[in-house]
Give the backbone structure.
Amino acid sequence: MAQNVRIAVTGAGGRMGRTLLRLIHDWPGAQLAGGIEAKGSPHIGADLGTLAGLAEPLGVTVSDDPLAVIRDADALIDFSVPRASVEFAALAAQARIVHVIGTTGLEEIDEERIRAAARHATIVKAGNMSLGVNLLAALVRQAARALDPSWDIEIVEMHHRHKVDAPSGTALLLGEAAAEGRNIVLKNHSERGRDGQTGARAEGAIGFASLRGGSVIGDHEVIFAGPSERIVLGHIAEDRAIFARGAIKAALWGQGKGPGLFDMADVLGLD
C-alpha cells in the first residue's frame, strides 16, 4: 500500500469533515494535506488539528481555494453537495488525483459530468462507504437474483431530521443492487412516495420509503415479501466513523490505479 498519502477533506468544519480529520491524522500511511470550506465559512483559516480536537495544532489550515489544496494532495475525500462535488471532480481530473465521492442526491447531469472527469482521474463514488452496507448490497443482489418477481422488494430507510435528500444514497445503492440481481433498470421499476389511491402494487417494482427524525445516523432494511413469508436484510449505522473509514480505505486503494470510475465493491473486492 502507498505510504504517506496526502489526503485533503472537503467540508472540513462539518461533522463528517472533523471525523475524517481525526481518523486521517491517526491512520498509518496517510497524512492531512488540507481542508476545504466554501467562501465565507467561519472555519476559513482554522488549523485542522484544532478543528479535529487534537492535542496540538498541525500547521495546516482550512482554505476556500480548492484548486490550491487539490494541487498539494494525492487524494480528496468529498462528502459535500452535488454542485460542489461536480466542480471538485473537474479539479481532481486536472490534478490527476484520486477523488472519493460520498455525496448523495446527484442528478443524472451530475453523474454524466463525474463520468467525464473519471476519464482523467481515479474516482471512487458510492452512496455509502461502509463495509457493512456494501456487504448488504452484495447479499441483496444475490437474493434478488434467486427470488422470482412474485417476491416484492421494499426498501425502508430512516435518517436524522436534517437530511435533505430522499431516498438516501444508501437506499438507492441497495435498490440498484436489487435491480442488478433481477437484470432490470431501477428507474423503470421504482415506486416512491405512495399517497392516496395508488392502485395495486405492480409486480416486479422496487419500492422505497423514507423516514426522517431525530438524530438517526442511518437505518436501512430491504424486505423481500413473498407468498406467506418475508426475508428482511438490514444495516444500522451507529457512528459516522464507519463512512469515514471506508472513504480513507478508498483514497489509499485508488493510488496508482489510473483513471476510471469505481465503487466500494471494487475497493473491498466484493465483485
